[in-house]
Amino acid sequence: MTRVVKFTKMHGAGNDYIYVNTLKYPIESPEKLSVEWSAPHTGIGSDGLVLIGSSDKADFSMRIFNADGSEAKMCGNASRCIGKYLYEYGLTSQTAVTLDTLSGIKILKLHVEDGKVDTVTVDMGRPADMKEQPIEADGQKFIGTTVSMGNPHLVIFVEDIKDINLESIGPKLENHPLFPDRINVEFAQVLEHGKIRMRVWERGSGITMACGTGACATTVAAVLNHKAGRKSWVRMDGGDLHIHWDEKDGHVYMTGPAGKVFEGEIEM
Q: Which of 14, 85, 250, 267 is the most exposed place for a label (fewest CB within 10 A)?
């Protein structure tokens, strides 16, 4: 029997996902659907599928599936978009929302202007598993920094980011034997005035326009390597995010935009 599911396509700094309210539209086999729906020519086209649901520990829950069907523990850009979705679709009237994710409960602070959510600040928690990581791939030697922001990242600083062939080296680093569960890869170039230029190869999705947890990991790595301060603007292909690694509580706070692209229906 054919069933119609309503969805909303949203993006955070160009990192685009398909959002479904599972309180209204229960989803079975999200791994399979994420692959089908994320396809650019035969599906909706996206970096993955995000499911909004209930939680007995927070206001709402988030599950996120990459374009290859693998499930991610956390996505900063998706969490900001969920904040916008919840407020503008009337699921909440609060401007502070708790979100249950596989990497713990995150707190969303919604910045509302004229009844619309303009930007969202997410308390991303404390970074973990931070260490220097020498690594060799495809005949190239790098010195990176691993940082977990609920999901694993490898941040590599370079002199000129334009010299990096991300399409070639990204999958080799993602699937390096050092990382049996695979890893997200960021190449970063420190700019002036507290700005960092970053490009990302996301585990399970490939090159994306932005990565919220990746921007957080990049700022943390920049502090650890004495390349930037605790407040940075991280500039990605799809836009900028403001990241603050607070010295007092050790938490990383991410602020950035959330945008709705279109609404639609799809048959299952």
A: 267
